[in-house]
Amino acid sequence: MERFRCELFEDPTEFEETPLRDRKQELPNIVGRGDAQRAKKAELLRDVISLANSARLFGKPAYLLFGITEDVASDGRIRGINDDLSHYKKAPSETAVVKLRENARQEFAKAIHEYVTPVAKWELLFGECGKHQLAYMRIDPIPSEQVFQVGKEFSTAQEVLKKGDSWIRFGESKHQVHSLQISPNDDRFRYAYSTAPYVLPSHWEQYFTSILAEKSIADDANMPYYIDQYLSPNLSLTARVQQFLDSSTERLLVIEGAATSGKSAFLNRLCHRLATEGLAAVREAISREEFLPPSGWIPISFSLRNRGQIVRDSERLARSLLDHINMKGRFWTQREHRPTQPERLLEHPDLRWLICFDGLDEIMPTNSQTAFLGSLRSLMERYPNVRILLTTRPYPAPEVVWEKWPNTTAVEIQPLHTPQIRDYISAQGVTTDELEQIMAFLSQSPDLLALCSYPGYLVATTQELVPHSIAQPLDAPAQVEDVKAPAVSSDFAGDTAGGANTLAASNLDALIFEEPLVEKERKDEGDELLEQDGLPRVGIVLQRVYDYLWRREAKRWNLLKYGNDAMWDSAGRLAIATDGKKPIFSSTLLKKHLQPPRPKVQQWLLTLGILHQPNYLQWAFQNHLVKTFFAAWWISSQLACDERDIVCHKLSHCTDDFIDGVKEILAHLYDGDPTDLFSSVLNHDQNAT
Q1: What pLDDT, in 10s, does the model give residues 357-404?
Q2: Which of 44, 170, 350, 429 would disulfide-bridge 503, Cβ 3.0–4.6 Å?
Q3: Where in the chain are the domains?
Q4: CATH T-level assignment (fold) for domain 7-182
């Protein structure tokens, strides 16, 4: 037997436990057949059934307190039951308190056993607190298949408790809690805590707080300067998603965007905003002592990366979603206490779930992507109240036609325009002259400017050209090794023309000549970034950009170092094999030049935006500059190993335009003089002719 808990009378617990507590001024007299006694017995039966059902719903003990007034705010709230025990004398000679208490337990047991079903687990405890005798009934939670109800009709002069009548102690706020009559099949209350979790405000507070504490979400939300993505000149992605959330018909919005276009960052910022709003609403409800669920959208941030096995089956996908939800909110605390039907959380009509699936294209192996789409359709059919956002690169598979999916719309993020690029660089703390020099440099290489139309490339390039920039990745994982930017507070409303957030000015030396912050471990390489005329070398810029993007990707996938070599080598071999003759090539040619681990290397080349797929069966480099850069990089690595003959043989099959592009980039990457190399290529070609 537990010790008597005086704190139940002296220190009322938090309001959330109010449905699990009821107070009575007296210990009721249920002995005898008089109308008064029968009325007290009916009230006791109703109270026991109400609290037993509350305990069953919440999975916590419920308490019926005797000897305390309803007005807990008054100074005289503890009344005591000293006089009430006398009703339980079975003989005039019975005056011992211990005997009277035992008689009361027997009468309570007799009434509850006869009129309440299923059998409840309870205990009536007595004790003394100060000068008062007090009592309370503790009703333990039992996950019975049926709700507790009247098992046998019981009548009084005023009412009849019919067989099957049931109640639960509940209400929308602390001040409205009462015994609510329910049907035994009432869907809101008929499931025990072991079947479907009932989520309290404190759980929702924990859930939203956990989302806000997730580092990748917090980092993207606190980005000093954010470029809002656009779907058309007059429609931002933010506005379109709001239209989706306000719609009564749309269920799934597919957000397509090229690699490094900022899809993950957008979802992270959206989840942060919704969690912030949800947390504020929940805390307001707690302050008003309400039990209502969140009224706004409840985000579920769920990355699809490396989840190929989990997402192949709809049941397993739903189970993973619920485990993810519970990890954030602690709706149930131990695996052995997992409810048997937690999916009823997703079916709850009052909860507005928004599942944010990030990275359809990053599901590995790739054949699991098709399986996931089947699981997704099943998920949408089973949970009609759930809304879903899904990000992916433009998906080329012929069997995926989003227009044929019910209540589904696909939108595509557009590349940044030059004014947006200009505004972003301007916000990095450069003077007007410095800004013009950088824009002139980018404009001299249209392909480089085109790369910068994707936020990830723009950030990486800006970090090279402006070493002290506040540039932060728009599509980055939680952490990026060796990349640290000063925290500079600023706001950006998404306007793409003018209104740039200009920071403190810097001098030209700081802009170009200082070593970038991208790699702290790189040795001092002097002016290797610069041409003799002071302009940056495109080849060095790209090498550092891709080095940064690779390390960013390595953090995402938790990759080993060897993957770096495989990715670069595969891209170089493929670039030379396709040169200017094959701007678009087949999957067969791609796989021929991929180095192990081939499926992952193929995925990395797509994710870094080195390659893209014009359609399901065709591949291409992002643009001509990217292709010539990787070809030049591969040649440089071969020359460093004195493999000149291999290089000459490879180049002898390439077009003149391609060789000219490679020659220009190679001059930035190779310390030696490659002039004689290209003379040898010309001679090799003539001899072959």
Answers
A1: 999 988 887 788 889 999 999 999 999 999 999 999 987 666 688 989
A2: 429
A3: 7-182, 201-412, 415-550, 559-689
A4: 3.30.950
Distance CA 522, CA 524 (A): 7
Burial bucket for residue 600 (CB in 10 Å: 0-12, 13-18, 19+): middle
Q: Output the CA torsion sign for 423, 425, 430, 431.
A: negative
The closest of 66, 59, 75 to 27, measured between CA atoms, is 66
In the DSSP assignment, the letter for residue 26 is S
Of the CATH numbers 3.30.1360, 3.10.50, 3.90.660, 3.40.50, which one belongs to the domain with range 201-412? 3.40.50
Q: Which residues are 24's β-sheet partners?
A: 66
pLDDT, tens digit, 9 for 90 and up, residues 514-539: 333 233 333 344 445 555 455 678 99
Sign of the Cα pseudo-torsion (13, 15, 16, 20, in order): positive
CB 428 within 8 A of CB 466: yes
What's at 566, amino acid-wise?
A
CB 427 within 8 A of CB 500: yes
What distance in Å separates the CA atoms of residue 52 and residue 121, rounded to the nearest whole number? 8
Query: Which stretch of 193-197, 308-312, 531-535, 590-594 has the lowest confidence by average pLDDT?
Result: 531-535
Angle subtended by helix axes 562-578 and 624-640, to nearest 10? 110
Q: How far apart are CA 213 and CA 357, in angstroms?
A: 19
How many CA atoms lie within 13 Å of 197's alpha carbon, on the beta-carbon side? Answer: 23
Q: What is the pLDDT of residues 86-97, one digit of tens each?
A: 999 888 777 789
Residue type, 676: D
Cβ count near 687 (within 10 Å):
8
Domains 7-182 and 201-412 share a fold: no
Ordered alpha helix ranges (H), 388-454: 418-426, 432-444, 446-451
412 alpha carbon, distance to own chain's centre: 21
- In this predicted structure, the answer to whether residue 441 has a pLDDT above a threshold of 80 is yes
Q: How far is CA 566 from CA 518, 563, 595, in A?
A: 22, 5, 6
